[in-house]
Amino acid sequence: MSDTGLRILVVDDERAIRRYLRTSLTALGYEVLEAATGNEALQSAMTDHPDILILDLGLPDMDGVEVVRRIREWSNVPILILSVRDREDDKVVALDAGADDYLTKPFGIKELLARIRVAIRHRTPDQQDTVFEVEDLRVDLGKREVFVQGNRVALTPTEYDLIKVLVQHAGRVLTHNQLLRQVWGPAYENEAHLLRVNISNLRRKIEPNPDQPRYILTEPGVGYRLRED
Fold first, then answer.
1. What is the Cα Rg of the chain in Å?
2. Are the C-beta atoms of 100 and 72 separated by less than 8 Å?
3. pLDDT tens-place string over residues 203-215
4. Adjacent-strand bridge partners of 147
5. How far, in Å, CA of 218 to CA of 220, rounded?
6. 112 with 184: CB under 8 angstroms?
7. Nearest-CA neighbor of 130 among 171, 169, 86, 87?
8. In the prediction, which pLDDT does 183 show?
9. Cα separations (Å) of 4 from 26, 31, 108, 196?
10. What average pLDDT does the structure give for the chain?
11. Which of 57-71, 96-110, 115-129, 202-216 has the lowest mean pLDDT?
């Protein structure tokens, strides 16, 4: 299915931002819906069934993070945060609440479009037969095998679970807490050292230069992102 024709809900209390995004996205074939408040966004998400939300955090009636939490109670629709808040803590809170990605204002339309494409590619559940490839790295989830330059890499079960989660969310930022929950379970959310050790071990096995990683990228203070292209 082509991305064109997909429905994007833009949630921002600034009319100028909504108008700019409507003009830019409509010209590329997207259908654009608008909401100026959190309550309008929640209502539109339920009745209009958008394919992706672009959400500001500073809404007049409720914080955008609360909008994310409420939507995540019943929907997995991709949510891209677009906000002036650029503190690491703000990004972590939004991503932990269930947002898929975070972009700060001012923003470039090319980067926004790239983030939209990533989010849309992940709008459906991941399939177990996924084969992920970038440069010399190949991960076959169906066969539970990882290859670098055509050579099979031996991973521990935990290392494999970690790269599997990264592959399933390739191109998207995963916070430390999200990775700890998905790989080790909720009881390990405060065990950041486990994540650091396993990321380090994984990089030594798959990266050409672990000190300058090309595949598993660090988002300082937030988490990690698996490079997608």
1. 18
2. no
3. 999 999 999 999 9
4. 138, 152
5. 6
6. no
7. 169
8. 87
9. 9, 8, 20, 39
10. 89
11. 115-129
Distance between CA atoms of residues 20 and 175, nearest Å = 30
SS (H, E, C) 121-143: HCCCCCCCCCEEEECCEEEECCC
Contacts of 54 (CB under 8 A, 6+ apart): 8, 9, 10, 11, 12, 21, 80, 82, 112, 116
Q: How many residues does the chain have?
A: 229
Tokens of 8: 């994007």
Residue type, 206: I
DSSP string, 2-38: -STT-EEEEE-S-HHHHHHHHHHHHHTT-EEEEESSH
pTM over 0.85: no
Q: Is the pLDDT of residue 1 over 50?
A: no
**Strand boundaries in the chain, DSSP class E:** 7-11, 31-35, 52-55, 79-83, 101-104, 131-134, 137-140, 145-148, 151-152, 173-175, 216-219, 223-226
* pLDDT at site 157: 86
DSSP bridge partners of 104: 83
Determine the Cα–Cα distance for residues 21 and 14; give it in Å rounded to an integer.
Answer: 11
Tokens found for residue 79: 């949510």
Placement of tokens 């290392």 in the chain: 159
CB 41 within 8 A of CB 53: yes
